[in-house]
Amino acid sequence: MKKFPETFVFGAATAAFQAEGAVTEGGKGKTYWEDYLREQGVFDPSTASDFYHQYKTDLALAHEFGMNGIRISIAWSRIFPDGTGTPNPEGVAFYHRLIDECLSRQVEPYVTLHHFDTPLPLYEKGDWLSQEMRDAFVDFAAFCFAEYGDKVTYWITINEPWSVVAGQYIIGHFPPNIQYDLPKAIQAMHHMMVSHARIVNLYKEKKYAGEIGIVHILESKYPISDSLENRQAALTENTLANLFLLDATCNGRYSPQTMQIISDILLQNNGSLITTPADFAVMQAAAEQLDFIGINYYASHFIQSYAGESLIHHNATGDKGSSIFGLKGVGQRVNNPSVPTTDWDWPIYPKGLKDMLLYIKKHYPNYRKLFVTENGMGAKDVLVNGEVADSGRIDYVRVHLQAILDAIEAGVNVQGYFMWSLMDVFSWTNGYNKRYGLFYVDFETQARYPKQSAYWYKSVSESRELM
Ligand code: BGP
Which positions are tagged coiled coil (predicted)? Predict the structure, then answer.
């Protein structure tokens, strides 16, 4: 297939904390990031890309460069500075202005309710591990639906449960910086999926007119060689990071095979998972009503079996080759010499995206529609005379869009693509030197410059063909 369907959405993605800046303006409360990042003293998120003030400029650019969709998120702590209680009128008004501006530019907003930004007081109560947090999240969602539900057609409950728990409890690069606690990570994922499900059910009960989905990061896992041990290791990481969440999302329960593998991981890591029959009733009702799944895809991983203790080094600097990722009871990610990687050691493997899309069609045939809600390449872009020659990014996006075209041709219902990111934004663990944007941001002046990729993306969205 050569052309994308007429209805295919060409968009770009942002997230509130990474784009807005203005972390102390407009009555905003804190998330768990501000104090942590200040104490670390490495990256300052307080201005980010200044989207709080520059959203009109960014939406004008999105429109001018052929985009008809944008992912934004609502910062929970702008609406409820403490996570619960009385809504903050300035925060509420800001998202009315932002959503109105999207609509007036014909850039459809796809709105996420939780994009890595739990309000600090709820984080301190235990974040997703606490019942109070989960109840408060449902209340926040109900508030947003009542407030913005007549304008927003596409809602996303949670962005990337796996990245949240991996960051918080496995890799340890998100507060509370715990490493290798797989049982906590699995428990928190389950809680996130039940919370997601409660919100889907609420949205449907109230008969809002739009659609609701969730976004997962879904990276394919391949055995580095075809031995039984390596295949088992790849299946184990696939189950932990992908299938556990897809089972919950699409079926509202974990399959016996998934539970077998999760139980083995828990056993080897001295933990357990607490679930209740009520959880599964809620999850099943939501699975039947879910409108779409968003897939974030950047990389795939090549896995070999691993008998050691968990050991991870997160490459946050772009020093190629410095990553280590081994998980007790799971496996170890290894370099595949025939697959190129970014400076942050992320394997560039578009086949992994196509394989994942086909996998969902085959194994979760009740999914309704998919969007690729994030895909893009982080690079150390340089601005020369007002221009950025980012041909590497164009090549990256081209091969991933081709993978999507191939999947559509094979019968997968993919309805749109959102490049990460619209403009350069703050990167959670990499700060500002890992740029993804179609528009270069000079973080001193906040001026925007279209990169070569922006012109290319415009021509693709206008012609609906890859060139
Ligand atoms: C996804 C997140 C985004 C974004 C992106 C790039 O996991 O949803 O918020 O940050 O990854 O990641 P990074 O900035 O770590 O390179």
Answer: none
